[in-house]
Amino acid sequence: MAEIVAIKPAVAEAPVVTRLDKGVLRLTLTNPPANALSLAVMAALKAELDRAKSDRSVRVIVLAAAGKMFCAGHDLKEMTARRTDADRGKAFFEETFSACAALMQAIVRHPRPVIAEVDGLATAAGAQLVASCDLAIASHEATFCTPGVNIGLFCSTPMVALSRNASRKHAMEMLLTGETIDAATAKEFGLVNRVVPREYLNQIVTKYAQTIAAKSSLVVKTGKEAFYAQAEMGLADAYAYAGRVMVENMLARDAEEGIGAFIGKRKPEWTEE
What we know:
By secondary structure, the chain is of the alpha/beta class.
C-alpha cells in the first residue's frame, strides 16, 4: 500500500482537503452541497496552491471535489447578502472577482501541472476552474455550463478561461444559451481531455498524474511556463521565444541526462537541474 502523507489534517470542516502521495498532491473541494467558490474557499485553495510551489515533493496537482457536484461557481447567496451594504455590495463584488481572477491565474502560472478530476456539474466559475487547469478528465456523468445569462449576469470572467480552451463559436454557444452540455460535448468543445466511466475516474487521473510526476519537474515547469507564454505571442515572437527556451533547456543537466539515457537505452536519473 502506498504511503500517504497529509500536508495538513484532512478534517471535514476544511474547505479544501489535501493529500500527498508519490509526488501527486490531491486538493479536494469540500464545501457542500455545491462546492461553491466563496471567498473562504478561494482563499483556502489559493493558499494550498501557493504552499505547493515551494514543496519539492509535489510534482503534480489534482483538483477534485467531494459530493455530487464538482463546483457551482460563485456563492450567489454570499454575494446577494452584501447588497444591503452602503455601496450595494460593489466593494465585495470587486473583491470576489479579483480573488477569483488571482486563483485562476495561480493555476495557470503554477510551476506544477494541475489536473482537474471532474465528476458532477461544473457551472459558471466552476467551469472556469476546469478550463484553467492544464488537463481535465471527466466522468461520463459530468456536465458543464455557463448559465449566467439566464439570471441576468453574463459569465464574463468564466469566458476568459473558456475562450482559451474552446473554439470561439463553441464558447459563445455556452455563454449565450446558458445550456448544460454533457461530458462528450465538453470533450468535443475542447474543455476536457478525456471522458471515462465514473468508477475508473480516480484511477485514470492518478495514472495521468503519476506519468507526469515521473518526468523531470524542472523540464515540466519550463515547458508549462513556455506553453502559456508563447500562446499570447504572435507567430514570429513565439518561435523566437521558444527557441531561447529550448537553448536554455538543452543546457540543463536533466536534458543532458535524458538524452544520454535515451541514446544509452537506460532509465534517466533526474537531478532537477
